[in-house]
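Final paragraph of the annual report: two paired records, presented back to back.
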Amino acid sequence: MLTFIIRRLVQAVIVMLAVALIAFTLFRFVGDPVNQMVGQDTTPAQRETLRERLGLHDTVLVQSGRFVVHAAHFDFGNSYQFKQPVSGLIGSRLPATFELSITSALFALLVGIPMGWAFIPGSTGPQSSPSSSRRSR
C-alpha cells in the first residue's frame, strides 16, 4: 500500500511538472511580454531595461526553472492587464468558482441518480420506465 501511494505521488509530481512546462512554453512563445506591458511611445532603452528586470535575457532553461519555482510558491507575478498580483485576482474569484462547482455537482447528482435509477436495465426503478420496455423484448 505504501509503495502504491509513493508511486502515485511521484506520478502526480511528474504530471504537475509537465503541465507547468507546457504552460511556460505557451506563455513564453506567444509573444514578447514587454510589448504587451508598455505602450508604443516607450523607448528601446526602456524596453531593454524592462526585459532585463523580467529576466528575459536568461536562457529558456533558467526561465522555466524560475517559472516552476515561483509557481510552486504560488507567486504568479503581476497581471499585465490589471497591474495587480495574479494570486490576489485568483483569490478574489475563488468564492464564485466554489459556488459554481458545488452547484454543478449537486445538479449532476440530482439529475444523474434518478436517471440512472430509471433507465438502467435491471435497476429497481419503476416498471413504467423506459428500462422496462427494453426488458420485455
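The closing record of the year follows.
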Amino acid sequence: MRAVPDRIAFAVEAMAPRPGTRVLEIGCGGGVAVALVRERIGPDGTVVGIDRSAIQVDRARRRNPGDGVELRVARFPDIPGDDSFDLIFAIDVPAFRTGDPAVASAAAPLLRPGGELWVFDEPPPGTATGPVSMRISALLSEAGFAIVDMVERGRTVGVLAAPIASVEEG
C-alpha cells in the first residue's frame, strides 16, 4: 500500500467522520481520502467522491471497490441525483481558490441539518499559511457560512464551516 500524503491524513483526522454518516468529497482524485473516510464511517456510512476527471474516478474505483462508496465523474456543484450529506469536504480543490462564493454556496443545500463543510488548502511554496486560512474563511463567510474552527499542520490549513442558519438554530 502506498503512503498516504500528510495533508490527506491530517484532513481526515481533523474532520473525524463518524460511523454511519454520509460524506461527500469534492475533487476526490485517486480516492485516497475516500478510502480513509470509508474506514472511519464503517458499513453503515456512505462516502461519495466526485471528480471532473474520468481517469481519476477510475483510479478511485480501483482503490475503493465494494459497498459504501459511490464515485462519480462530475464537476461541483453539478452533482447528479438528489443527495444530502452530513459532511462535505475538499482538499486542494482549485474551485475554492477562485474567490467565487458561488462554489461554496452550492454546498449549503447539500448539507443535512447540523452538517459540516471542511475546506483544506496549502499556500504556494515560500509563502505563509495565514493568508490561506483568511482567504478560505472570507470565501465561506461570503457564501453564507459561519466559521466554526480553523486547524493547521505543517503547510496544510483547514477551515470548518456550517451554514449560518444551521448555527443559529443549533
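The mean pLDDT is 91. This concludes the annual technical report; the extension proposal builds directly on these records.
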